[in-house]
Amino acid sequence: MKPAAYIGLMSGTSMDGIDAVLTSFSEGRAVIHSTCTICYPDELKHRLIKLCQNQGCPDELGALDHAIGELFSQAALGVLDSAAAADVDVKAIGSHGQTIRHQPRGTNAFSMQLGDPNLIVEATGITTIADFRRRDMAAGGEGAPLVPAFHQAIFGSPGQNLCIVNIGGIANISCLLNTPTEQVYGFDTGPGNALMDAWCLDQTGKSYDENGDWANEGRVIQPLLSDMLSDAYFTLPAPKSTGKEKFNLDWIKTFLNRHPDTSPSDVQRTLLELTVISIAKQLPESADLKVYICGGGSRNRLLMQELRRACSPFSVNSTAEIGLDPQWVEAAAFAWLAQQTLNRKPGNLPAVTGAKGERILGAVYWP
């Protein structure tokens, strides 16, 4: 009998493109059979950014939902083509979609992802599961982060204190602790790459600062950093989640109005330090904690260097050290969530999201 496998499709708040993985799960391990990445065309990314800034209309919302759905379909087909030799039975696709707005608090809390799943199931003929966040939100949760349950299933190890840090546009942590009272918790710490990417694009025309090279030309401006760290989000108790509707270019410029004449490279270096400190300060206190990084931030050499400095004496390494390439962790998580849904098992952790209880997540689109 062929082993069951699932496809995970993920595009994060950095809006770089779509990561797709074909993976199976065995004895607490994720086995990656094939991968595929589709980058967003610059024009499409620009339209998404404008929509996130409330510059759009219902027609644009619908058009982008369709366009993103087409690209997600291509990513699923691409990973299937790459897996032609893999002798597996693909059970379902888990599609996160592209978040354009995440408002988890207030009377009318909501989270919106684009990427029409009907197009995915039509293109692939494979059961597709999407809209993972809103069931948790209907149960009083924040709908995010959802990956800690996956981190627990794949990385959890009895007798060890681990913290998995995903650094995408927004950074989130999953704390897997060997304590009798609180074994798993997690939340969004704040900006990951989002502010650095936004400032780099605004000032240089480049979508990101490769390896942190530009930031390395600048220096940390302590008064600016302290002012940014005074934002109430950083001391907000968990559960908490956020997005680019908060941490964006306008957020940066609000602080620069109070700190004029700061050089662009110094701003970039300070934004990198903001990501570092906002992660390090929210790690749990544990003498033997091991920290593992995944997401795009793991490829930023300066960011990783400064995280190791700020998190000392904790060790800081990539999730590759514990068996999963950091680029594919998030996509694999949504493959795992698809498996949970098909097996009628919960995908959320109430201690993480604040939901009233465990819930089976996602809407199922049958072929």
Automatic annotation (TrEMBL):
Coiled coil: none annotated. Keywords: ATP-binding, Carbohydrate metabolism, Kinase, Nucleotide-binding, Transferase. Pathway: Amino-sugar metabolism; 1,6-anhydro-N-acetylmuramate degradation; Cell wall biogenesis; peptidoglycan recycling. The keyword Transcription does not apply. It is an enzyme of class 2 (transferase). ATP binds at G12, T13, S14, M15, D16, G17, I18, D19. Its EC number is 2.7.1.170. GO terms for molecular function: ATP binding; kinase activity; phosphotransferase activity, alcohol group as acceptor. It comes from the Bacteria. Catalyzes the specific phosphorylation of 1,6-anhydro-N-acetylmuramic acid (anhMurNAc) with the simultaneous cleavage of the 1,6-anhydro ring, generating MurNAc-6-P. Is required for the utilization of anhMurNAc either imported from the medium or derived from its own cell wall murein, and thus plays a role in cell wall recycling. Belongs to the anhydro-N-acetylmuramic acid kinase family. This is Anhydro-N-acetylmuramic acid kinase. It comes from Marinobacter mobilis.
